[in-house]
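Re-run with default settings, no changes from the original entry. Doing this only to confirm the output is reproducible before filing.
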Amino acid sequence: MAIGIDKIGFFTSPYYLDIVDLAHARNEEPNKFLIGIGQKKQSVIPPTQDVVTLAANAAEKILSTADKQQIDMIIFGTETGIDNSKSAAIYIQSLLGISNQARSFEIKQACYGGTAGLQMGVEHIRLHPDSKVLVLAADIARYGINTPGEVTQGGGAVAMLLAADPQILEIEDKRTFYSDNIMDFWRPLYRKDAVVDGHYSNEIYIDFFKRTWELYQQKYNRQLDDFSSLIFHLPYTKMGLKALRSIIDESNHPQTLLAQFEASRVYNALVGNLYTGSLYLSLISLLANSNQLAGGSLIGLFSYGSGAQGEFYSARISNRFDNKNLKREMTDLLANRQQLTIDQYQDMYRSALSLSNENQKFDLSNDSSDFVLAGRQDDQRLYQSQK
């Protein structure tokens, strides 16, 4: 029985910062960011959006009324939690009107949380073939203004509906893992901005990729040329390219794999980092922009979460997949964003909901999204539907 991604949707902020503007403001040569990091634009998240609203807006695009009644599990992968106790998934269940007869919970391991949720959902459907599982991967990447990590900020959400006989991607029961207790990136409870050892984290990422790839080869007797493409978790797009180049000599068709990688990073370069969702935005980018995929094509996916957990797994493109709608939706979403000046970006960055317990109310007039964060009252976040 084939199990995997039946529907997939994406949502990000209606605002972005041009990376060239950021380079000029920080007295850097633009190509350091454009080529050295591989980023062109960066989503800037307004205070009226958080991971709950980002995920709700992504999921609302893809779910039918029938889907909402059939879903019996909601898994929310994020490292931008909004509460130390209550799951973001519970808010999603309520906002979207999903059946109350569903398990709803949140899962965390840095950027790996979305993959953990996807694999858990696949195994649930393997035992319960009539089930549908909603997996959400949403985050807001923050490193602070005028910091080394500033160029790799961003945010957004990917929503994936898992089912048997999927229309998009069939997840194979072939996967390998590697984990270790490493302090390359973390975010203490008292901080909104992450703490990261950038050079060390890059080294660990490559190391975990090569370890899981080698374990996969040994376990399943597959080689690089068995794959039509490899896609990666992309905290910034040059990172995935470095990983691919570390094994590209194993291929007899390196230019094909490199071309597929270029297709897979188109959208990430325009959005920036979204932690748990980055690998799956890369998947959306590959599906929408590659002209070399066909039904049955084998792809490899590398997921990484600092701290650290790595996983390499494989999947096949469904014979039923057609990328026309996905391509059009992504083009429309990214084309209809508003560019911010540096001052506007910095003001918006600082205006997010504070870590204190003060009541706050946000102006919603500039956010026409279906779901918004209206503010906070008596320690409760106030979510609102504008449908």
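The CA atoms of residues 10 and 158 lie 5 Å apart. The chain has a mean pLDDT of 96.
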